[in-house]
Write a structure and sequence with these properties.
Shape: globular
Order of helices and strands: HHHEEEHEE
Pfam families: HIT
GO molecular function: catalytic activity
Protein name: Histidine triad nucleotide-binding protein 2, mitochondrial isoform X1
Strand order of the largest sheet: 1-2-3-5-4
Largest sheet: 5 strands, antiparallel
Helix content: 25-40%
Catalytic activity: adenosine 5'-phosphoramidate + H2O = NH4(+) + AMP
Family: Belongs to the HINT family.
Distance between the termini: 29 Å
Radius of gyration: 16 Å
Length: 187
């Protein structure tokens, strides 16, 4: 029930932001070497000084806590299935018959986007042999989109799996992060 309340509050915030900024977001695109700056859409408690691009932040707070509360196999649609059916807006960068790419609403780097399959695979650990071509396609789309986003100097791909992997949305997704020096180890 608490997760539904948090999701509803986030959706309301997203709708308000879309009404103000338009469906594709109105934040200016930052040049690759421009320093990250706070602006009116920067959320309190958000790590780093990155601009939020696209729709308003639907996710606030600690991702690990959200992963601990996430339902791994509920009947309710996920936030990503709602983006796929266009009932929730997103800043879409690429789409084809197999996948969708859009900016993360709570970016952890100057460039942070997600690659999701249109086929609803809840977790990478639940992918089947028949998903082999789709999984390869997702990686190639991530590579092409990273290049289009100016990430020629490198980037990171992240797939969270399950509660201990901090997966908070049970629809397979690849995070692509870049635009700054990423640290190691990541976790």
């Amino acid at each position: 029930m608490a997760a539904a309340t948090v999701l509803a509050a986030g959706l309301c915030a997203a709708r308000r932001a879309v009404a103000v900024a338009g469906p594709r977001g109105a934040q200016p695109r930052r040049e690759r070497n421009e320093p990250a700056m706070n602006d009116a859409l920067h959320r309190p408690g958000h790590r780093g000084g990155h601009r939020v691009r696209g729709a308003a932040a639907v996710t606030d707070g600690n991702e690990v806590a959200k992963a601990q509360q996430a339902a791994p196999g509920g009947a309710a649609p996920t936030i990503f299935s709602r983006i796929l059916d266009r009932s929730l807006p997103a800043d879409i960068l690429y789409e084809d018959q197999q996948c969708l790419v859009f900016r993360d609403v709570a970016p952890q780097a100057p460039v942070h986007f997600l690659v999701i399959p249109k086929k609803p695979i809840p977790r990478i650990s639940q992918a089947e042999e028949e998903d082999q071509q789709l999984l390869g396609h997702l990686l190639l789309v991530a590579k092409k989109t990273a290049k289009a986003e100016g990430l020629g100097d490198g980037y990171r791909l992240v797939i969270n799996d399950g509660k201990l992997g901090a997966q908070s949305v049970y629809h397979l997704h690849i995070h692509v992060l870049g635009g700054r020096q990423l640290q190691w180890p990541p976790g």
